[in-house]
Amino acid sequence: MIGRRQILQGMGGAAALGASGVLARAAVAAKAPLVSGLPAGVYDAATLAALPGKKPLIKLADRPPNYETPAAYFTTPVTPNDAFFVRYHLADIPETIDADSWTLRVGGDGANGALEFGLRDLQSGFEHVEFAAVCQCSGNRRGLSEPHVPGVQWGVGAMGCAVWKGVRLKDVLAKAGLRKEAVEVVVDGADGPVVDKTPDFVKSIPLWKAMDENTIIATAMNGAPLPHFNGFPARLIVPGWTATYWMKHLTSVMVSTQPFDGFWVKSAYRIPTGKFPVVQHFETQVTAANEPITEMVVNSLIAAPAHDHKLRAGEAVEVKGVAWDAGYGIRRVEVTSDGGRTWREATLGKDHGRFAFRPWSFRFAAAKPGRYVILARASNAIGQTQAEALIFNPAGYHNNVMRPLNLVVA
Amino acid sequence: MLRHSMIAVAAVTVALAVQARAEEQEPALKDAPGRALVESQCAACHSLEYIRTNSPFMTQKVWEAEVHKMIKAFGAPIEPADAQTIIDYLVRNYGAPG
Question: Which residues of A touch B75 (CB under 8 A)?
């Protein structure tokens, strides 16, 4: 278990501790730019704070660190590394990881052999692939559930889009050799629980998803090594699926002939079976009552201007944000300013790939003074669109309800 | 607009770098009977903002379920009598009616 002081000592050394120690006496917790609709306690407890190597982000918890990205960052399709959200389940997080001694174990009863790879083995032994993909926490927007549900009370920023570079998981698995009985691939990372009896954060994915050409082990993010708090030196990238599967600080990849029975797959990260419009299911883990969360649902966010932005009658303002889905491709973003009576198409920005944020913008102007409520609605290539009303579920997942932006025309 | 939002982000960054704190104080919970036990037992595994941010919408039934989940699913070594004290504290200070 490590505290903030130890993290700072580990990452920044005595200089950082000394410099900010002086300031600590005068420090007042900075107000976080929170969206409306969260539980009252969030407005009281959340602050803006910076982890080592990170910009100030919205801190929802110190230990384990849970920090979300302020919405103002989502005016661009790529989220900077130092502003990328941070999410851990358990507080025993390595202070630093030595890239030279890091090893990845590959094997399991569904593989023909067991292998170990160092970082250089991984980077030099396989073909490299690089693409942009959205990494979104399953519980992004949980704090906006009505009624509220327990958990990390995320607003809209437990997500980001980065350009990931790495090697295909299927190429790595091929080196070990797959047995025909293999059904799942179990992944673990270097972080763990404080108490021995707490289930370690271990996940599995279906073998077919592990063999997808877009499932990779990334060692670079936006052209740089992964930030420590985003999984240095290697993390699993499962494009289209929620971030619960994107194991950070990856240490082992085990092919299994049996469905994995760990807590984080059997009991956590599950949605009511059949309640959401998703195409891909984790078949070996589905029960009559519930199933693992898999794909992200189609969604969008208005990132600018700020809530209650004021403009004059006849003056135009550019309303802009991003849209994303599970990789089917964003086809359309529509905007209404009259409660949904009329919808007009926003202009889609550059396509950075089917798994990436799709930027969009819309010029709004009103001739008459008054308060205007702007809603944006994204649709994808397979005809899915955002929910008008929340599809309630006990863990607060898959919230893609349209979010209002208020504009004041004077 | 892009420039404006970048300037806004940069301004926030500068303002907050000044306020960066080296030693984060655990946020104080409300002072009431049971507080010391809650702080020592709950903060062993996670910081106390988890309690503050998950309020005040959880009813007695929901707080009971959460505390029992910490013990049964996550293996928190909390004695039954202590669990009741913790639940009572959470319901009175961070709970919702119902």
Answer: 193, 195-199
Going by DSSP bridges, is the β-strand pair A103-107/A250-256 parallel, antiparallel, or unpaired? Answer: parallel
Instruction: Report chain A's mean pLDDT, rounded to a whole number.
Output: 93
Same domain membership, residue A316 and residue A173? no
Residues of B in contact with A304 (CB under 8 A): 1, 4-5
CATH 1.10.760.10 for domain B27-94? yes
- β-pair partners for A217: A167, A236
Residue in A34, A48, A62, A407 to test binding to B, most B beta-carbons within 10 Å: A62
Q: Is residue A88 part of a domain?
A: no
CB spacing of B19 vs A27 below 8 angstroms = yes
Q: State the pLDDT at residue B98.
A: 79
Q: Are residues A359 and A217 in the same domain?
A: no
- Give the tens place of pLDDT for each residue, A169-181: 999 999 999 999 9
Domain borders along chain B are: 27-94
Give the per-residue pLDDT at A186.
99
Residues B84-95 pLDDT 10s: 999 999 999 999
Name which of A98, A116, A99 is nearest A107 in CA terms.
A116
- A49/B47 CB distance under 8 A: no
A-chain residues near B19 (CB < 8 A): 23, 27-30, 48
**Which alpha helices (H) appear in A184-325, and where do they start and end?**
207-210, 263-266
Beta carbons of A121 and A159 less than 8 angstroms apart:
no
Angle at A231 between CA A228 and CA A237, to 5 degrees: 150
Q: Note down the domain range covering A247.
A: 103-292
Residues A121-172 pLDDT 10s:
999 999 999 999 999 999 999 999 999 999 999 999 999 999 999 999 999 9
The Cα of B31 is separated from the nearest Cα of chain A by a number of Å equal to: 16
* Alpha carbon separation from A148 to A153, A159, A192, B56 (Å, rounded): 9, 20, 28, 10
The per-residue pLDDT for A29 is 62
Quick one: A165 and A285 in the same domain?
yes
Q: What is the pTM of this model?
A: 0.90
Closest CA in chain A for residue B73? A198
Going from the C-alpha of A154 to that of each of A66, A238, A268, A409, B66, the distances in angstroms are 9, 21, 17, 30, 18
Query: Looking at the 3D structure of chain A, how many domains does it have?
Result: 3
CA distance A267 to chain B (A): 9
Interface of B with A in 20-59 (CB under 8 A): 20-24, 26-27, 44-47, 49-50, 52-58
